[in-house]
Amino acid sequence: MTRVLIVTTNYWPEPTGISVYTTDAAEFLTSQGIHTTVLTSLPHYPWWKIPEEYSHMVEGNSSHRNVDILRANHLIPPRMNALLRVRFEFSLWWNLKRISKQLELEVFDAVITYIPTVAAGLVAKMIAKKAKKPLGIVVQDLSGAGAKQSGLSGGAMISSLAKAIEKSVLTAGNQLIVVSPAMRDVIASSNIDKSKISMILNYSAKTIQNIAVLEARKRLGWNDKDFILIHTGNMGAKQDLGNVISAAGHLVGNSKIRIVLVGHGNQEAKIKEMCVGMENITVIPAVSDADYSSLLSAADMLLVNERATQMEMSLPSKLTSYLYSGRPVIAAVPRGGATWKFLDGIAELVEAGQPRSLAQAIDTISNQPEKLLDLADRGSRFAMEYLDPDVGRKKYLDWIERLVNFE
Length: 407
Description:
Layout: E1 3-7, H1 19-31, E2 35-41, E3 60-64, E4 67-72, H2 82-99, E5 110-115, H3 118-131, E6 135-139, H4 143-149, H5 155-172, E7 175-178, H6 181-188, E8 197-199, H7 213-220, E9 227-232, H8 242-250, E10 257-262, H9 268-275, E11 281-284, H10 289-297, E12 301-305, H11 318-324, E13 329-333, H12 338-343, E14 348-351, H13 355-365, H14 369-386, H15 389-404
Parallel strand pairs: 1-2, 1-5, 2-4, 5-6, 6-7, 7-8, 9-10, 9-12, 10-11, 12-13, 13-14
Antiparallel strand pairs: 3-4
Helix pairs in contact: 2-3, 3-5, 4-5, 7-10, 8-13, 11-14
């Protein structure tokens, strides 16, 4: 039996971000007869604390859906700046390395790690070298670029260090996966052998059901007369949700438009404070997977928002679910960045950091039912052609088979 070790700092039960893909990959590999072990952290994202319902998850061994899990205790900073980010990464690296000594490394046929945290990459690199096994790297995000682009206080200061460490990990990889053309270009420009790099777009790892709008809104208790725009996922610096709140301010005169921000994150308290006294924008907690389809189906339009400086570091994980939902998408993102390129031709695009332009676009489209239908159709067709989960999972399985047999 083939055995693989996945090293990642984001895994079930984290509801959003990279965890969606690491969890799906591990469970799929297990279903295909590959014995899968996950070396990971405690659940902390996007809350930046361990929620009460997961307080029983402590350091040590456990299992979920036939996947063996080994978790390490570590620092979880309640907020983030350059110094805390360094301490966070160091704590992850030290503790993952420490607890990895419990693993029988010789039993694994390959080691796979998910970037962005450089800690996971470094530990996976160490394990692969020690066990003399091939190392596969899935690049979901670029920490070096991210530190500089995400708006993190002091981020530019640690960007060079993060890039250097990240490059050492990428260079050590025997096979790499990237999830966007922009990311592939950035990595290739770092003198990484192009023959090592495969591109596999993130598929829709969550099952999305298309529910009638009126039924979905009835479940949520929302007015069926409003035009509802929804943003889901992490509430952090790189989402720049202050731009959305400013746009809501420009829409005050439009009584039918409502914006709903759904999720958690280290900017959550600040965002809630900014929304106080505003009647056309609401912040609500993340919903369960069981309710996620209803949430998306209740929207007239789905929103992606990014900082103006965020170019090639990552693609928002929400995109796959958005496009599979059958709802039109609007994106306020940097022109020419990874998300802009990904959505060009299938979503309404607005320059990042320009709340008045975003408000104008929302206002205009809310009165264009034909355009809404066209955008929804474009997104659905793209999802069916490129984001099918069965196709995506098969590509990962083929990639892992090549990795295991790498010489």
